[in-house]
Fold each of these.
Amino acid sequence: MPAAIGVKIAAPEKQTIVVCGDGAFQMTNNELSTMVEQGCDVKIDLLNNRTLGMVCELQRIAKRHKFAVALPDTPDFGKLADAFGVKSRRISQDADMTEAIAEMLAYDGPYLLECVVSEVENSKVNM
């Protein structure tokens, strides 16, 4: 998210979208304040699988025991966004994706689109 803010400030005419997992978002969600303060029209597509997805996937690929990757008690990201004055929407069905993305892109200002996904979904990368 910090990089997206820098991109948006450097090129305000460009559409700027962050795609991140819930673990990464929890490490940088304080930047919502900066987005609002700076008037950055940054869109956030948050993939919420309640895990540190990349670490979990790497452990799976290495055939290691999953360790320290579960995030079962994630906050209500919509309420968090609201606390910073950022519009948000939460979806959990593929059928809602097209409309939700259109709504996010049409909104003038920072926007958090939380997409609840299965914790077993992965990138399908064979390593």
Amino acid sequence: MKENKNLEWKEKMTPQYLKTVSAFSNYEGGIIVFGMNDQGKVVPISNPEELCLNIENQINDNIHPQPEYSLEVLENATIELHVQKGEHTPYRYKGKAYKRNDTATIEVDDLELSRLILEGKNLEFEELPSQKEDLTFSTLAEYLRQTLGIQEMNENVLKSLELYDKHQKYNLAAEILADRNTFPGIDVAVFGKDENIIWKRVSFVNQSILLQYDQVAQIYKEQYQYETITGFEREKIELVPEVAFREAIANALIHRVWDSKRNIQVSMFEDRIEILSPGGLPSEITKEEFLGKHGSVLRNRILGNIFFRLKLVEIFGTGIYRIRQAYENSITQPTFLISEHSILIALPLFKDHIELSEDESIICEQLSPTRIHTMSQIMKISPFSRTKTRTILNHLIEKNIVEKTGVGRSTGYLLSKSI
């Protein structure tokens, strides 16, 4: 076991551990082990009961508000301090709030502090009052007319959508949906064969996110859809599934952090689309849950509910699942890269068959999806040199057609089971 984001070792008790108590209370919780040096070696505490009392007094006197924690003395004379994530953030030590950055504990910046304050008040950024009183909603009104048959945008409609009340007037969710606003938007770039060739670049900012959604969808159609005519029949061809693209854009808009000034980035390549959204996962959800069938947690509940009512998304956490469903019969599959501050969704071109060169086909015919072949075994029947065979295998690995197992002399190759 090693130190990590949720585990810290302390050979002795020094005031520095109180910063980590603050960090664990503010975010995911964690354990501090006293009597363990940096190498993970036990250095027994001489009087653990007395140290427990000192720890308890220090936490009670220095961390505000009072965090939730427990102390346990183990048989090897070490002490485990279990700190729970608290509900009344921010938890401060000497007036400052902290967070974990891998195995280090650092002070949060002003943006993170404001988020902790909102969380402690059980508020989301979108619920805060807007400073604007002259908002208009023509795009939203048109969506409501076409989708729900609502002919007039009035105060009662805005109230039912949770965008307005008589006391605080408009909230920030209303401003984000308004025709004009001061919020970030979406950057779109259409590339050629690589990022050095840019065919088109456009930004949609300071406008309703519904209009942004429509405008980006139009660029998608221009780049990844076309029609074929066979006899009297017209068939629409989608190089990237439209349902997957719309889900990814809607997901980026309703799950992003709106207190960040960064734009959503949509990069359109010849072989894929990448959607980069500011803000990692909400603290209540794990990566595994996010990628599962019912993993979504609404970061922006009001915006999410409106997108649902306008039939732009499914509300029950199925966005990522629906993206995966769109590629159910495709050899290529979407990928999801999740970091602390962003989520990247990559949507490849839909392919329902494998395109192999003649040389690649020859090598694939020698492989099996159930039996691992070593290079020596492959070379006994390969018509190519060892160098060329290895080059072909590497190309097949890059295409996810062949899987490589083991290292060194134990290296083996087998066909991907997705073929």
